[in-house]
Specification:
Layout (H helix, E strand, L loop, with lengths): L1 H5 L3 H5 L2 H8 L3 H4 L4 H12 L8 E7 L8 E7 L8 H37 L11 H9 L5
Antiparallel strand pairs: 1-2
Length: 147
């Protein structure tokens, strides 16, 4: 790609969509001042993805038979090399707190479930029998019968 981009004539470069978008953002007298050599490297710089060195870079297209158009997706993840604003810090803290709280609640509920099932399976009956009939339901679903 590099070799074909560097050997394009000046008029073809000026008609290139990338260069046209670039020219739309600069005054006409500045756009006319670029020579072929400069335009080649402007096009390379604007088309280059060298700046986007991410540890996770997934790009793809989704085509659904019932939709007339295709959808594309991009997932980029990597180290943040820019400054973080106060809002981003606050959102990060909020997300981290919610994640820790959610994981903690999940662990407590899972522990309570395991404790209840162990209590019901061993028939120790340290919990009141009216608590839940979960053990009976599970035993019936698994075909162990009702105790």
């Amino acid at each position: 790609m590099l070799a074909t981009t560097l050997h394009t004539p000046l008029q073809h470069l000026r008609n290139d969509p990338v260069i046209k978008r670039f020219f739309d953002q600069v005054p006409a007298h500045v756009a006319d001042s670029f020579d072929e050599h400069q335009l080649r490297y402007i096009r390379l710089a604007l088309n280059s993805r060298a700046w986007g060195n991410h540890s996770i870079d997934m790009r793809g297209t989704l085509a659904f038979p019932f939709l007339p158009k295709q959808l594309y997706f991009v997932l980029l993840m990597g180290l943040n090399r820019r400054g973080v604003s106060k809002k981003e810090k606050w959102l990060s803290m909020l997300f981290t707190s919610a994640s820790v709280l959610g994981f903690g609640c999940f662990c407590v509920l899972l522990g309570a479930l395991v404790t209840y099932l162990a209590n019901s399976a061993t028939a120790v009956d340290q919990l009141p029998p009216e608590l839940l009939d979960l053990w009976d339901w599970l035993a019936m679903k698994l075909g162990w019968g009702i105790r």
